[in-house]
Amino acid sequence: MNQDIYVVIEHLRGQVAEISFVMLAGAHELAKGLGGNVVAVLLGHKAQALAGNPSAGAGQYLAADKVLSLDHPALADFTSDAYQKVLTDLISKDQPRAVLFGSTSIGTDLASTLSIKLGLPMVSSCRSFSTDGKFISQICGGKIMAEGDLPGPTALVTMVPGGYKAEQGQSAQSPAVTEIEVPALESLRVTLASYIEPESGDVDIAKEPLLVSVGRGIQNQDNIVLAEELAQALGGAVSGSRPVIDQGWLATSRLVGKSGKSVKPKVYLAMGISGAPEHVEGITNSDTIIAINTDPAAPIFGVAKYGSEIDLFDLIEILTEKVKQSKGG
Amino acid sequence: MTANGAVEHSFYNQVLEATPNGERLRLCLQCGDCSGICPFGYLMIHPPSRMIAHLRADQFEKVLDTDTVWMCVSCYACTAVCPAQIPLTPGLMARTKEELILAGNVPTELQSALENSQRYGNPLGESPRKRADWATGILPEVKILGKVRQPVDVLWFVGDYSSYHPRVQLITKALTKILNALGVDFGILGPEESSDGDSQRLAGERGLFEMLAEKNGMAFSKYEFNEIITTDPHAYNAIKNEYPGLDISYPIRHYTEFLADRLDQLKPLLKHEVKAKVAYHDPCYLGRANEIYEQPRAILQAIPGLELVEMSHNHKNSLCCGGGGGGMWLDGFQWEKAHVRLSEWRVSEALAAGAEILAVACPYESPRFEDAAKTVQGAGQLKVRDIAELLVEAMGN
Amino acid sequence: MNIVVLVKLVPDLVEELTIDTSGVALDTAWLRLIINEFDDHAIEQGILLKEGGGGVVTVVAPDIEGVDDVLFTAAAKGADRLIKIKGDFAGVNNHALARAFSAVVKELQPDLVLTGVQANNDLDGSVGPLLAGCLEMPYVGYISGVSLSEGKSKIRKEYPGGLIAEMDVTLPAVLGIQAAEQPPRYVAVSKVRQMMKTSTIEERTASGLDMAGGPTISRMFQTEAGQRATMLTGSPDEVATKLVGIFKELGVL
Predict the structure, then answer these.
(1) A29-48: pLDDT as tens digits
(2) Fold of B108-260
(3) Residue A165 — pLDDT band, cuts 50, 70, 90?
(4) To probe the interface with A, which of C26, C93, C163 has the most A CB atoms within 10 Å?
(5) In Å, what is the CA distance from B210 to each residue of B198, B205, C145, C194?
């Protein structure tokens, strides 16, 4: 048994998901105290380039001491059955100190089942680690934190974003890649049929420099136009939180948050958004968050740099007017 | 409803039996007065008279296939005008909504309000433990009966919006001042109070109404008091007219009745002028449904400097603010169909009457009219005040 | 189709959450427990599948405060059988709950098991995939669409950004529901009350609750508000002016 921290890299259609870098950052924090290596585990088919190639941007590689590549056609796309079989094999052979998974559509399909199959303890919703080997998880809508010693002999941990920045899990050097033999993968019970693309929005909110984002507080579809006018005046776009998209007031392509997009605008203006963790997850990379919400206890004020309790309906049109005036328009 | 969605004849009979005077449904002349006076009648595929026609033709499923009955704000205008005196609002409209709810046809906003009422005892989804938080810091301390355990003269049934909505809490605090100034010995139920349930009843949830009424009944029975007062005409209507059918009987008055009785005591306290033209809006459930028109006006006229003006729709044919019968929780739905809000119509009437202040006496109204005043042209300066707030202004506090 | 839906009750976040005197658990004195909203979606999905293709829906839940109401409500929506598992579930983790559920599920021999993809108080994984491990069934989570045919199911799995993967899963399987194909239907209070009179809740007993596999919590605490935002006050005009100033500072204007 070793003190290595394994990180199950998440990738989808040729892109490494940001959570992978967050996990690597967390793994390094843990490894500081335990003295082991950070090992990236890359399941896929001809996906080795992902270890050495960045998902986007220039020169960022997986910040791992080494990469284990498990290559098999059946692993080309994520499916729970195939990935589980491979990881069961790997974890029982290598017995690392911990295996980190994303608390995502990929990671949560794996960790719990492996916990039962391998008889290994697990911790979910982990946000960060301390160097003395403690996990810190968040539950109950982000309102409660739970801390404890990392269980053993091998802890399976699902991680949520927020505790580390992606940059902390990226490295300027490309790690060494080792090929690991993959067990036979037959009679798989879960197979991929096809992908269905999201509706192509006219706008990719992940690329917008400024977002006027609306939540439940916008109250109904007809008020969205007020946000659009403000966004237009500011040279940005409109996005929204889950309740707004669920009601059909904005297209799915405009959804910000855990089940939507992560955005990184210069300014994120959140109007009538309470700031539940699932939403906040998508905005932590914004440069400046400004929150308008009549509820002083709204969690969004904990992540915003500026805020106001003013009623968004009292503010929005005056603000649009003043923005236009300042532009001389 | 039968398996294939057809409504059995029993629906007709149920309306007849379930509603007091329900059998008057048989006397419908098909005159169409109800559909004509209905503020949203022009948007309903099947306005009230046509609903009755379908019912008689045994093709009521045609009505149930549409969702336009959700445009009904239970304002009682149809019931008040019907020459055959058919209980249209509590009978036909509420029962039709009930059928739709049983079939699962409920607009989403309304669904949340009903689920919240069930879970938290209020449609806003607020914690019941915080129902008396509005009273924090007020001196003398507002008596919460569960804590104080003494008999009081008056039980003040505060109500949902009056307890939780920030705008309406101001009115609640205003009335507290008035009651204290008059030396009234009152108490509130606080966290033991549940929604009166009347709007939920009219939105078609009879079972939910009964559940809420039972809870309130149990709370009432624990304490000693001589009468109940409330600022909420919906609570007033429920406790006065509907609760006795569930064996929950207590004398209740709307606060305007209560204060009108004490006008001699109140007048000397009204030292400051409120110099303004004030239009009083008759709430549907105080005015039309319960025929209380003069007491609120008497109180307003007692305020020095105040000039009372009447809007073109007043007293019995007052125009609904749009909040009743579930309307408070159907705003998005109704807006999408109508692109006009009843509250905006009313605000325009206030302006036309030359009013500077629109006076109200129901907790749904101040937020609705203030929102409307923001969008109606020329209404920027119109103030919306509850009678209690005008009294406090005149008291100079 | 024999469909089983597993339901958990979780803390209602509307109420204030506090930590009890032990320092490692939530204070239950004022805690309101409500159905896990994702499990509510699972019930809805189960009923939709039954309405579409026939079958039997059984809803199973642990016997804790509020469970009867949850089960009768499920019956009012169309569930055929209601089972509650008796045992001391106070402070019990998901590993124990999954094991308790697996005994009942084995007895029921379903084609499909549905449960919410997660719950707000999950600290040791989620019930769905844990159960799949106990029963050696395939598991897929974050499901927003399910259709069934003989021996298999076609599911829609949600990925971030609106991407969906359509997958085939052999039955029997456990699916973690993110969203039912339509929002959970409303059921009138009168219908639920009717169910209370006409339906019965069957009982099973959990033979011991084995929590092995969960972490040990050494400290539980409330999240700090964090560094709070600088609040802008004043009239709408004043706040708007301040915001324009901030936009200029940040270089967006």
Answers:
(1) 999 988 899 999 999 999 88
(2) Rossmann fold (3.40.50)
(3) confident
(4) C163
(5) 10, 9, 37, 14
